[in-house]
Amino acid sequence: MSTVTSAPSTSATIRDASAERPLLEIQGLTKEFGGLKAVNNFDISIYPGELVGLIGPNGAGKTTVFNLITGIYTATSGSIRYKGIELIGLQPHEITRLGIARTFQNIRLFPNLTVLDNVRIAYHTHAGYGIFDAFTHNHRYQKAEKELTERAQEFLSVFNLHTRQGEIAKNLPYGEQRRLEIARALAASPELLLLDEPAAGMNPKEVASLMDLIHFIRERFNLTILLIEHQMRVVMGICERITVMDFGEVIARGTPQEIQNNEKVIEAYLGRGATALSQKLQEKRGYATGS
Amino acid sequence: MRIDRHTLGFWVVLLGLIILVQVLVSLGILSPFWETLLKIGAVMAIVSLGLNLIYGFNGQFSLGQWGFYAIGAYAAADVTYRWTQMNNASGLTVLFAAVALVGVAFFLTAKLVARLRGIDPLSAFALYIVATLIAAVIGVQIGIALIAPVTQLLATLPPGLALQIVYLIAVLLGGCLAAEVSYLFGLPVLTLGSDYFGIATLGFTIIVKVLLDNSDTLLGFEEMKGARGMVGIPKTTSWFWVALFLVIVIVLLRNLLHSSHGRAIVSVREDEIAAKAMGIDVGQQKTLAFVLGSLFAGLAGGLYAHINGFLHPNTFNFIRSFDPMIIVVFGGLGSVSGTIIAAFTWALVLEGFLRILLPTGFETWRFVVYPLFLLVMMLLRPQGLFGGFEFPYLRPVLPRPYVPETEEQVALVHAVEEATEGD
Ligand SMILES: Nc1ncnc2c1ncn2[C@@H]1O[C@H](COP(=O)(O)OP(=O)(O)O)[C@@H](O)[C@H]1O
Ligand SMILES: [Mg+2]
Predict the structure, then answer these.
(1) Which atom of ligand 1 is closest in space to residue A67's alpha carbon?
(2) What whole-number distance in Å separates Cα of residue A56 and Cα of residue A275?
(3) Staple B318 to which of A162, B171, B205, B330, CB 3.0 to 4.6 Å?
(4) Which chain A residues have a beta carbon less than 8 Å from that of B114?
């Protein structure tokens, strides 16, 4: 909790690096697909309690970074350290068990299962009973299963989904599917949460309520969050630090304000013409104010 | 534990039907022809429940079920054959000791592989093979040493009782052997994508059939008589035994599916990547489903072998792999109730009535009719005739709706409602 409240107003540069070790430290991360370098020499450090944004145009390599962190892809080179443990070479489920959970850009629920079971599956690794208890439905099974179910139900209530427990996941409206996916990720009790474009396909009102939700869960579950977003304005409001990627490389880092005015970033998003235009506009303004 | 009305109803109907058949058989009202078909129906239900676990619940398309069925059948038959025809317990002791030691070897090797972090799958597989071979050789030696004492011990029992005991252990051993083979086979193959897995399992069934064709020469089991067919197996599989095994398999499967382990198995079918991201060891869940499904196939094989007292490799031809596949697709992927109904329907209607009604040429035509049937089914009703339907006891119960009680819980729900209002 202290890390959240004591987090300095924003910039990483203010942070005293010797006081805290990064929770996640990625260095020189590269992933090639055939000849294509989807991620090239990527670095990032995320400190406990931070909410960091990872933005960039489509195809920049953001999702690939998530797939590398979570072990879905194996890096071509580089290192990913979580609490000092090297993640490259570990199986995805091992990485999840270390305390990293994620959501997917194209929602990946267990579509034909109930809302409740989607969350209960996240508890499997600490279900508290073995296969023989499962076969016999003995006392230990009864007790553990009851606890697990109650925990899942209470958890769903945090996401206002408890009234939907029996519904089949694929029949939920889009916004609720997104919320269920976040709920399921949190049920795996992570310390680091990776959100891949959670606002995709939402209208501005839905985006606003999603951002409120992210704030809420961050406080309540003491989370460190890395948030991918394609639309820049979404992350501006809630992230303390932002890393911008283009063509697999980091092109800028800084506070939202710094990023907003960064030429390279504007260029990446709007193309060269736009930079020239914005430069002209600025020059004009400068001329007009007489500075 | 409270038993609700529907569950009670399910058990009353199920046990009632089983007892009804038993009474009809005892009174001689049911002809041996129909009695045999009912037994075959129960056996096919067990095989198909195993396949449904692998394919329907875990999402691994497998044509290997028939090969494991064959292994269970021949292994169990060999044990009882040696007891009745050769008057010794050699089959029993050797198979028992080998299966037990190989089981121990798997356990120890798994520990070792877990300790040797980062060992590549092929090296791990090689370790397993070596461990299995060593365990099997030692097991056979121990088994041979045990032949005389065990034979003497069993001879002190009344012959009928001794046969039933040997038979029961034989069926169980057939199941365990099939499960162990499936574990070894699954190690390198389960990590392949689903399509390759399907092809590999088809290859497995073909290999088993070829080995059985040459069981007397290649494998050295003269009593199996290769392609001539094995005769003289005691006909010990009564309706009581198949019904008992079917009920046990249903209960075990249902209990598994209504547990965290069952949900983990199903999550792999639903979305493998999401399952991994939830901390599920996908390889482990696939192995669990595959080995358990093969165990059921092996048990069913052992039961089958003792229905007619006669086994022929042609019964285990790969083309018959489609029989359980048809049953599972017809009954519904992921439906236990559907599988049971479909298995008995398959036995009684397709193998029973149609055989009586249709001209003899139907035998040859069934391999045209069945695949067509399967195709039409997959196109028109991919969820199976019964869809996701389950009988009460087999249906998962939804817990009571959650009502926030403590002040804290109520406050939480309100806070969240505010935070999420708008969608
Ligand atoms: N599995 C893959 N095989 C080949 N190319 C891939 C694969 N995954 C991603 N890519 C490529 O890597 C690049 C980055 O993709 P991605 O990480 O999804 O971008 P983003 O999430 O930033 O939109 C794209 O050019 C994409 O086509
Ligand atoms: Mg993406």
Answers:
(1) 17
(2) 16
(3) B205
(4) none
As a residue count, chain B comes to 423
Question: Of B246, B257, B240, B252, whose CA–CA distance to B388 is shortest?
Answer: B257
The verdict on B279 touching A (C-beta cutoff 8 Å) is: yes
Check if A56 has its Cβ closer than 6 Å to any atom of ligand 1: yes
Q: Which of A188, A220, A244 is the last residue of a domain?
A: A188
Q: Which two tokens stand for residue B230?
A: 């094995």
* Same domain, residue pair A183 and A197: no
SS3 string of B349-382?
HHHHHHHHHCCCCHHHHHHHHHHHHHHHHHHHCC
pLDDT digits (tens, 9 = 90+) for A132-163: 999 999 999 999 999 999 989 988 988 889 88
Note whether A154 contacts B: Cβ–Cβ < 8 A.
yes
The sheet that has A36-46: what strands, in order across it? A36-46, A24-33, A77-82, A85-86
CA atoms in the 13 A half-sphere facing the CB of A153: 18
Cα–Cα distance between A153 and A115 in angstroms, integer? 10
Q: A241 has which bridge partners?
A: A52
Q: Do A209 and B259 touch (CB under 8 A)?
A: no
Domain hosting residue A76, numbered range: 1-99+190-291
Q: Please name the residues between 208 and 247 in chain A that touch chain B, using a CB distance below 8 Å.
A: 208-210, 212-213, 215-216
CA distance B322 to B66: 9
Give yes or no: residues A194 and A289 share one domain: yes
In a domain, A244, yes or no: yes
Domain at A42, CATH number: 3.40.50.300
Supply the ipTM of this predicted assembly.
0.89
Contact assessment for residue B333 and residue B386, using Cβ atoms and an 8 Å cutoff = no
List pLDDT tens digits, range B75-128. 999 999 999 999 899 999 999 999 999 999 999 999 999 888 778 888 899 999
- The fraction of chain A above a pLDDT of 70, given in percent, is 86
pTM: 0.90
**What is the DSSP code string of B276-299?**
HHTT--HHHHHHHHHHHHHHHHHH
Q: Which two tokens stand for residue A199?
A: 């606002």
Judgement on whether residues A152 and A89 belong to the same structural domain of the protein: no
